[in-house]
Amino acid sequence: MSDSKLILVVDDDTDLVEMVSMKLESANFRVAKAYDGIEAMDRIKEERPALIILDVMMPRKDGYTLCDELKNSDTYKDIVIVLLTAVTEAIKSTNYTHMGGKTTLADDFIPKPIDLDKLMEIVQDNL
Amino acid sequence: MEYGQKIHIGGIKFSEELAQVTVGCKTTDDCTIHQLLHLLAERDINLTFLCHAGLSGNIESIFCIDRADLGKVQQILIRSSLPNEQVQIIPSIGTLTLFPHRNEMKLLGLVIGLFGKHGFPVHSFSTSISAIAFNTDYSLLDEITERLQDIFVLPENHAPFRQDFRVTQIQL
Q1: Nearest to A15 among B128, B158, B170 (CB)
Q2: Of the partner residues B10, B97, B165, the one whose CB lies closest to the CB of residue A94
Q3: What is the domain range of residue A25?
Q4: Is B75's pLDDT higher than 50?
Q5: Do A59 and B164 count as a contact with CB atoms less than 8 A apart?
Q6: What is the DSSP code (8-state) at residue A51?
Q7: Topology of domain B18-91, CATH
């Protein structure tokens, strides 16, 4: 098995998951994928990633909730979490705002649309 | 992969109820799809699917809109210069998206085979870097997905097929 670090990419936008995964794999990271917060928790229990790239707005369990659960857990609090924040004040019908993102326990943030080079910098800086 | 072995996929998604509009043109010169797209954008009508295909001077553009926007789109089409015979509307379709496809042609073959075997219509389909999307009758989405599980294995705790929230863009 490779000793490269495992990164979990979580987003309900499947194209974004694939695009970020390809970029990470090209930098020799191993990648696991999940498409909502519940699935992500399954992957975390199975594979314990070193870092999670976590979307905020997802079905079933959103990124803020999962982030708070992990950071309040003795078992998982050391996993680095980078939140993806696409939500702006221009979006209605949800409870999410930029302010909400700034109050989570995540280790870092990156806005959507993602600048992949910036994302790689953040990943490298946090591992 | 052994014959008959199920393929593991990450998930299946359903769209909301949509309408599909097909606009045909003979050449790029007389094609008004660009004007039509501008008119749709001016009226804040989102396109959930857009596909252009060209063959021997014939160009076919297919797009999908929210079913609720069909009336507005029909008004635009009536006012446009497009002759009736160049426009086809399917008023109730759903997009069924499977992901990730991992560039496996076998996945495409299995799905097309299953649609053919059971007589499910494919009104259009396309791929992205992760997903393959089929537009079919909205009323058949549940039945098709049940059949798809004969050939695909989903993760135990997979994301729901239908979105449980909807993001709406508003003007500032």
Answers
A1: B128
A2: B165
A3: 6-126
A4: yes
A5: yes
A6: E
A7: Alpha-Beta Plaits (3.30.70)
